[in-house]
Amino acid sequence: MDEVQVVVAHSERATLRVGDVFLKVDGDPGNLEVEVEAMRLAPVPTPEVLWRKPNVLALAAVRGAALGRLGEPSPASPDAWAAAGAAVRKLHEAPLPPWSAPTSEEIGAKLDGECEWLIANGVLPADLVIRNREVAELAFRPWEPVFAHGDLQITHVFTEGDEVTGIIDWSEASKGDPLNDLAIMTLGHEECLDDLLAGYGTDVDVDVIRAWWSLRSLQASRWLIEHGFDPNEPGAEFDVLRAAYERS
Fold first, then answer.
1. Which residues contact 21 (CB under 8 A, 6 or more apart)?
2. What confidence tens digit (pLDDT) does each residue in 74-114 have?
3. Rounded distance, CA 161 to CA 81, Å?
4. Which pLDDT band holds residue 187 (cuts at 50, 70, 90)?
5. How many whole angstroms separate alpha carbon 188 and alpha carbon 72?
6. Going from the N-terminus, what domains does the chain have, and what CATH number goes with each?
7. Tell me: the pLDDT tens digits for 120-158?
8. InterPro entries, alphabetically (predicted)?
9. Is the separation of the CB atoms in 229 and 222 below 8 Å?
10. Which residues contact 225 (CB under 8 A, 6 or more apart)?
11. Per-residue model confidence (pLDDT) at position 206
12. What is the 3-state secondary structure (H, E, C) of 105-152?
């Protein structure tokens, strides 16, 4: 009998694995609707949908292994990272999905609220938060929206050899900033950025990617803390913010 493995679980959603089947349980069925439609539209490998109920989605496991984990060196080869970059470029060149992400104004307002919370609660030194907020401002430049994954963590991109075998967790997919996807993939793995961009195949402003590293880390920290995760683990969000502070 296959054991039930809890992949992730918190108050909003949970993912379980039973053999080669993943069960995603979400308190908001709209998230699963977006995920299924995004996978249908995306021109890249995605998991097979086995069945769906209002709050539960069953997906087949994809071949291969994730590009890596936050806080650990990536085991994937430079060619695998380049293949991932090419897959992301293919996604970004696809027709736009019919739904939108938050506007820059909404993102900026939320970011300011998160910075205020981090300082008011003594979670991080004020000067570190303020400097990273300044770095993040560059992300709010004009940009052309693309079909964006929206949560393209390296644990969501699977490869086998030098082939991308699947991209998972599409509930945040929307019209979005292409450099946000590239930034999320390389958060805490700056050493892999050149290989990713070699496959992505276009001129990219690395300073904007760094801005998104700061933005993402500032914006995610409270959520991580409140849902039982630790952004202060080695290589995680707090280390990203400290590196940006030292770089500046």
1. 50, 58, 59, 60, 61
2. 999 999 999 999 999 999 999 999 988 888 999 999 999 99
3. 11
4. very high
5. 9
6. 64-247 (3.90.1200.10)
7. 999 999 999 999 999 999 999 999 999 999 999 999 999
8. Aminoglycoside_PTrfase, Kinase-like_dom_sf
9. no
10. 123, 231
11. 96
12. HHHHHHHHHHHHHHHHCCCCCHHHHHHHHHHHHHHHCCCCCEEECCCC
What does the alpha-carbon distance between residue 53 and residue 6 come to, in Å, rounded to a whole number? 19
> What span, in angstroms and rounded, lies between the C-alpha atoms of 207 and 138?
8
CA distance 5 to 25: 14
The residue type found at 99 is W
Mean local confidence (pLDDT), 27-55: 95
Q: How far apart are CA 161 and CA 164, in angstroms?
A: 8
Which pair of structure tokens corresponds to residue 197? 């961009």
